[in-house]
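Box 3.1 — From sequence to structure: Dihydropteroate synthase
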Amino acid sequence: MGVVNVTPDSFSDGGLWFDPAEAIERGHALIAQGADLIDVGGESTRPGAERVPLDEELRRVVPVVRELSGAGALVSVDTMRVEVARAAVEAGAAVVNDVSGGLADPAMAAFVAEAGVPVVVMHWRGHSRTMQDKAHYDDVVAEVRAELAERMDRVVAAGVDPESVILDPGLGFSKNAEHNWALLAHLEVLTGLGRPLLVAASRKTFLGRLLADDQGLRPPRGRDDATAAVTALAAAAGAWGVRVHEVPASRDAVLVAAAWQAAL
Ligand code: PMM
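Predicted structure (token representation):
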């Protein structure tokens, strides 16, 4: 899954694809590089971010979804708002990626059920402004598993076909580096929920911390090789997909993992 953030302020690529024409071009480039799915988002969810007004999110996302879907791409819309999900699906989006797992907008699950599209249900505990205050766990792997199972049950109770649910541990969302590594090291506990698992480590701060030197954290664009390493390990551990900003190295990593698995 290649990321196109149509935002001025996302932590690693904010402003780069804010102009719709640039975002569309970026989406085409990611497909040419081997992305199977393009994730288009108009609201930054970096820690501390304020929410974007609905009209602005619609203005950012819908033209990009329409153009890329119209050109034959498989597009997911990264949104927590049912109005944006609805407009994006009408414009051709094939998947709804709701980082709140249906918690932010109580109407989301019923819409996804009605639209019959797959939905990414991510582990989330609250909006960006306060999410890091909720990064407290006794056993992060067991708690994320239990909360993801509960989110899945909620969307299924609203009518979503269980076969349409993709789960995501939500790396960095109410989680510190130690929590992220624990989740990555125990992906089998999450794939054990029986649904495809999406892993989105790309360029996140825990990688910057891993690669830090005396200048401080490695900046986001210096984290792509580490991202590809996570891709290889996640793929080998049975992840269904990875959400990344730079596609080529992760595409190759997926092929390596598949060949490795096939030879076992
Ligand atoms: N992370 C971000 C945005 N969208 N979607 C899913 N499913 N999982 C994630 O972990 C996730 C996401 C934040 O990263 P970005 O600002 O680079 O897009």
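Summary of the box: The longest strand covers residues 2-5.
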